Amino acid sequence: MVQKLPAKDIQHTKRGYVFRKFAEFCNRTDLHGFKYIVMEDLNIVERSCWAISVFVSMIVAVMFVVTAYRWYARNPVVTVIESTQGAIWDVPFPAVTVCDINVISKKAARSLSNNLTLPLHITPDYVFKALKLIPLLFLGTIKEKDKEQLKILQDVIDTNGITLKTLFTTLSPTSSCDNLIQRCMWKNIIYRCDQLFQQVTIKIGTCCAFNYFAINDLDSQNLDLLQMSTPRRVASCGYQTALTVLLKVDVDDYYSSGIATQGILVFIDNAYNIPDQDSPARMVSPSTEVLIALAPERTYSTSGIKAFTPEQRQCYFHNEVTLANFKQYSFHNCMVLQRILTIKRECGCVPWFFPEKDGYRVCNFRDIDCVETLPERLTMKDLVNMPSSMRCLPECEHYDYPLEVAMGKLSGKVPLNGLPFFENVNIENSSVLNIFFNDLVSTRYRRDVYLNWQNILAAFGGLLSLMLGFTFISGIDFVIFFMFRIVYDCTLTNIWEGKTETSEGKIIKVEEKNLSKISSKREWKTRY
User: Fold this and answer.
1) How far is CA 286 from CA 199, 283, 347, 424, in A?
2) Are residues 187 and 222 in the same domain?
């Protein structure tokens, strides 16, 4: 009969089996240090030191791998410079918005105040002085005396049926773009300025914009505007290869300005961004020629970026989010909209310059107390984290226009007969603005996935190789050893032991029968 071993002996046998397999693995693997743990030429102290070193290396390797993975998980997307030789025709030309620093025309204010229907206790001079204060509604801090004047002015314009937008547009020096822009040239071809520029309203007043695509269904009275489905592009670089305009400044008509100077404010930004206080801006002084050279930059995203959520990649694609009346999402437009929504939520109205179509009341001079204290109550953090169905994030793909400015005094004594752009124009108190690409090439950035299998393999493989000498062959060797030396051996042993136990009784009976037969034969031989 087969006797079963005691439990203690079985446990001792299993432990010995594990030790034997571990020693076998140490002898065959090429991982650093393992073979010294079981090397017979070394004493127990040396082998113990090697065992401790290998164990510590394994712990440190695991820590490094976990730390690297957490870093990759926190930063799954990276932006790198792909090329500094990108073609400029791949980058659309920016929008150019020109605004007279003078917000209120003195002539227009005098004319309006003389033609209004006024109460008996209000004089045209009182209205004329009050009109000087109207830009302060969204641009500054107002004295209590001035607030009272503006509230009385609000009653006057309500009596005459004048809306706030009509008031600002009528009083603006740019009530028509022809008042601000004398001559326009695009790609060395002279156009009528109303074919290139359209009137837009922004926070600082009424302006004229070129290549402007920010707002859907822009209410423009300019029927001569050359309509384009996408922003314009250029294929050349240098002076007078893109946009050149002759700007007219009426220094005698200045009546109300938010900046203590005279001239033109120029905003240069993405064609789909609405000009605002945080848009890139430059100044054009009277009687100067200004050259603005652009060095365009393009950032695009690979297809793998779309697999991440906006929170993981920290950006939106243009087709993922729709912003009110904006044609295209951008972080800039989102922040502008958040400010508008904040005014709407806190004061119950929207600014006159925002093209709102939801029927909300336009803020007037009676709301001046709420509008004035709003910046003090809200910070940029409040705007970003304000209760809303959408969080403002940067765009995954966008264009930027770093610029350099050069300027000089515009002299009327220089002979200009050979330049058709200056024919039959008076350049007194005028300025020339040139905006063009500085070079034929642009910088192209790529936003790519950092947490992919190539980077993980390189990073984790490098760490494991540094700490343990781990290679791809080492991994295959471990799999083969585990599958064939441990799992396979254990499976065969269990099957063999099961067969032995089931057939044990039969074998013993056969042996007993054979023994009885042999003994009977021996007895028969003895008798006979």
Assistant:
1) 21, 10, 39, 19
2) yes
The answer to whether 240 and 91 are in contact (CB under 8 A) is no
Rounded to whole angstroms, the Cα distance separating 199 from 180 reads: 11
365 & 498 share domain: no
**Residues 251, 102: Cα–Cα separation, whole Å:** 9
Which amino acid appears at position 320 of this protein? E
The answer to whether residues 479 and 405 belong to one domain is no
CB 1 within 8 A of CB 508: yes
User: Structure pTM?
Assistant: 0.76
In terms of domains, do 91 and 230 share one? yes
Q: Any long-range contacts for 13-22 (C-beta under 8 Å, 24+ apart)?
A: 21/485, 21/486
Give residue for tokens 């020109």.
98
pLDDT for res 526 = 40
| pLDDT of 176 higher than 90 | no
Q: How high is the pLDDT of residue 505?
A: 45
3-state secondary structure of 405: strand
In this structure, the answer to whether residues 359 and 411 fall within a common structural domain is yes
Angle at 367 between CA 387 and CA 136, to 5 degrees: 105
Between these two residues, 88 and 389, which has the higher pLDDT value? 88
Q: Which residues of 70-100 are buried (b: 16+ CB within 10 A; e: fewer)?
A: eebeeebbeeeebeeebebeebbbbbbbbbb
As a whole-number percent, the residues of the chain with pLDDT over 70 amount to 81
The range of the structural domain enclosing residue 45 comes to 7-74+455-512
The dihedrals phi and psi of 442, each to the nearest 5 degrees, come to -130, 165
What are 407's strand-pairing partners?
A: 290
- Tell me, yes or no, whether 345 and 412 share the same domain: yes
**What is the Cα 211 distance to its own chain's centre?**
23
Identify the helix (H) or strand (E) that includes residue 23. helix 7-28
